[in-house]
Amino acid sequence: MRGGLLLLLLTQAASASAPTGNCGGNITVEEPGYLTSAGYPITYPPSQRCAWAITASEPGQRILVNFNQHFYLEDRGCKYDHVEVYNGGDELSPLLGRFCGNVAPSPIVSGGNRLLIKFVSDNETQEAGFSLRYEALQKGPECSRNFTAPRGVIQTPGFPEHYPSNLDCTFVIFAPEASEIAVEFDSFDVEPDAKPPPPPGALCRHDQLEIWDGFPAVGHHIGRYCGQTSPGRVISHTGILSMTLITDSSIAGGGFSANYTIHSRGASPSARLDQ
Ligand SMILES: [Ca+2]
Ligand SMILES: [Ca+2]
Hints:
Blueprint: H1 2-14, E1 25-29, E2 33-36, E3 49-56, E4 62-67, E5 82-86, E6 95-99, E7 108-109, E8 114-120, E9 131-137, E10 145-147, E11 151-155, E12 168-174, E13 179-189, E14 208-213, E15 220-225, E16 233-236, E17 240-246, E18 255-264, H2 269-273
Parallel strand pairs: 1-3, 10-12
Antiparallel strand pairs: 2-9, 3-8, 4-7, 4-9, 5-6, 5-8, 11-18, 12-17, 13-16, 13-18, 14-15, 14-17
The chain binds calcium ion (CA) (2 copies).
């Protein structure tokens, strides 16, 4: 609890400044906003220790943060300067990532309605710092589903019509032990990230489908998809395959439709070819 108290003092000391204040604070997200390290985009001061506690205004909401691509913190393995993101309201919460160097982190979504951003710099070597945009994901229609049948179809809500805004769906396929799950996407159209920043790779800052071999955020990450880049054929070896679909408040695509089949590993090769 001492960590929480320290954080409380830290954030109270800074809360007199505006929500975009330069060294920590408590932010209740009524609408999207930005926070940046002091001195951004030129250089941050030495010896910073700042924590921003971001809380959605409604308990059912989640927090989405997108880092600006102009990101630079002293590298050196994040030992001296770093920004950390915790999945909760304080530093006792699970650490989602510790970042430094000049490659901005991918977008991050909280599990609950709180997220903590912590920034630390030591007393020498300062770089440009970071800026991030935060927003609360509104609660859309309920859309999560579990699948246990040997085969089935997974589609975006309302498919083939455009999917709704503010979705936060989790689809999980459960197979018996020692089975393989194969998912084949027949159709895929999710709002693209129209202005992808220079480093290659889909960031999918608006709408995104993520796929794991295992449970979401726990299993092996298979990929993050948007635009017309279909995941194609995806295989799970763990007996659990999960997908999360998150959509923002505007612009929808046609969605996706995928077939899945569960193959028992005990089956003979010829039987496994039989779809
Ligand atoms: Ca430093
Ligand atoms: Ca969208």
